[in-house]
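Teaching assistant's notes for section 4

Start the section by putting this record on the projector. Ask students to predict, before seeing the second block, whether Copper chaperone CopZ will look compact or extended. Collect guesses on the board.
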Amino acid sequence: MAEQVTLPVSGMSCQHCVGKVQKSVSALPGVDKVDVSLENASVEVAYDKSSVSVSQIAEAIEDQGYEVGAAK
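Reveal the predicted structure now:
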């Protein structure tokens, strides 16, 4: 069963930013779905917690140069 998490992300300002975040999170093992919202400054991820953790997802986003807040 897939877990779902929504992470607030600051620093995204355009569709290029959305694409970078989408690509980096989608590349993680165990990630089923990524929905990046520029309007809401958030990333919603469906993932398999036995393959990837929320901290790994946040790290992938931060590696692209964005700031991740606490999961909702």
